Amino acid sequence: MDILGKARKLESTIARKLDSAARELMGSGAHEPIEIVNLIVEAVEHEVQSSGRGRRVFPFNRIAVSVLAPSRGARARLEAILEGEPPLHQRIVERLRAARCHVEDVAVGVVYVGRPQKVWPHPDFHVEFYREPPSPLRGFGAQGHVSVATETTEVSSNRIELTVLLGTAEQTTYSLAADRIDLGRSVEVRDRRHRLIRMNHVAFIERGGEVNQSVSRRHAHIAYDSHSGHYRLHDDGSVHGTGVVRNGRTIAVPAGSHGVRLRSGDEVVLGDARVRVTLSS
């Protein structure tokens, strides 16, 4: 067997062992990917509420889903269902409509994490719901509600890959497709009364040394503009600042500004941490 063949055999053996360890970590009663998807959709439907006179409404326009994927194999199996046909966004909209619910424009973001958080009510996934002001790029329907548009589904074809270069995050590489991507320290950010105020998609771990401590919990976010097809980086009032390194030059991103458009190959500066940007073509 040549060296390449031996390397492939070793890689296959390691992958099998990692998958086995992942199954043990998730428990013998772990759900199959399709079951997890159905549970996520049911969790969304549970948030539907009556608005009077027989009407039902889903009060949120942004859903952030974190899914446990402790190995590359586990993630691949989940992605095949969550991003396949129909994708999670479509499943959610169809379920809400089947529940006779008026559906506003709902953005769905999915993040894969290596281990569950203690606050997760379900060991395989966690769902957070948000309501944000409508974008001026989106039209309003006759009754003043934002209609279900195609922008959310278009985002899925414009993925952004974020690779951590300096600092320690929950993952080394994140592949995301969402209208807004939050970056900061810790997955969940809570106020003094322990109320959840934010969930970071790119999360630097709390005890990761001086580099991680320079990253604020609510440091920055990346916004996707479906009209232009661009991603822009915004500072969220961080302590140690946000910037973009491009061609050896650092571009500052002041809090409250219009942000900086990101290009493939840029390095996002979060305090002392750095994250490389790769955009899909």
Topology, element by element:
Layout: H1 3-26, H2 33-45, E1 49-52, E2 55-57, E3 62-68, H3 72-82, H4 88-98, E4 101-102, E5 107-113, E6 125-130, H5 151-155, E7 160-166, E8 173-176, E9 180-185, E10 188-190, E11 196-199, E12 202-204, H6 209-213, E13 220-225, E14 230-235, E15 242-246, E16 249-252, E17 260-261, E18 267-270, E19 273-279
Helix pairs in contact: 2-4
Beta strand count:
19
Task: Provide the CATH architecture of the largest domain.
Answer: Sandwich
Q: What fold name goes in the CATH topology slot of the largest domain?
A: Tumour Suppressor Smad4
Regions with pLDDT < 50 over 5+ consecutive residues? Answer: 135-156
Sketch the topology as an H/E string, one letter per element: HHEEEHHEEEHEEEEEEHEEEEEEE
Distance between the terminal alpha carbons, to the nearest Å?
Answer: 38 Å
- Give average pLDDT, whole number: 80
Q: What is the number of helices?
A: 6
Name the structural class: alpha+beta
Task: Describe this protein's structure.
It is a single chain. This protein has helices at 3-26, 33-45, 72-82, 88-98, 151-155, 209-213; strands spanning 49-52, 55-57, 62-68, 101-102, 107-113, 125-130, 160-166, 173-176, 180-185, 188-190, 196-199, 202-204, 220-225, 230-235, 242-246, 249-252, 260-261, 267-270, 273-279. The protein is globular and about 55 Å long. The model is unreliable at 135-156 (pLDDT under 50). Helices cover 25% and strands 32% of the residues. With 281 residues, it is of the alpha+beta class. The chain is built from six helices and 19 strands. The two termini are 38 Å apart. It folds into two domains: 29-133 and 140-149, 2-Layer Sandwich (hypothetical protein PF0899 fold), CATH 3.30.2320; 157-281, Tumour Suppressor Smad4, CATH 2.60.200.20. The longest helix has 24 residues, at 3-26. It has a six-stranded antiparallel β-sheet, with no helix packed on it.
